[in-house]
Write a structure and sequence with these properties.
With about 120 residues, the protein is α+β, with helices and mostly antiparallel strands. It has one domain: Glutaredoxin, CATH 3.40.30.10. Helix content is about 45%, strand content about 20%. The protein has helices spanning about 1-20, 45-60, 75-80, 105-119, and strands at about 35-40, 65-70, 85-90, 95-100. Helix 1 (about 1-20) runs parallel beside helix 4 (about 105-119).
Length: about 120
Amino acid sequence: MGERLVRFSQLLGFRHALFTRRSRNGPPYDEGVRLELYTSAFCDPCHRAREVVAEAQRLVPALEVDERDVAAHQQRAAELGIRSTPTTVIYDADGGEYLRAEGVPTLPRLLTALAGVAD
C-alpha cells in the first residue's frame, strides 16, 4: 500500500513538470498538454470518464481538455477512427497523437500518460 502512495505522489510531482519543461524545440508549453475526450450522451462510462478527466485537469491546470460528443462531431470521430465511447486521445506538444485509450481511464494511469507526454 505504501508503495502505491509513493508512486502516486511521484506522479503528482509531474504537475510541476508540465509548467516548467521545455519541448524538444525549446519553447515552454504555453498551451499545455491537449486531451480530447470522445463521449456520447447516454453513455454511463462516459460520465465516469468525465469525472476522472476533470480531476486530472484540477491537478494539472496546464491540461487543455476538449470533450467531443461523437454525434455532434461525427466527421472528426470518423477521421480519427473512434470506435467506442469513451475514448481519450492525448496529443504531444507538436500536435501528434501520443496516446489513445478506450474506456474509463484511471486517474493514476492518466497522470502517468500526461507525465510521459511532458518528457
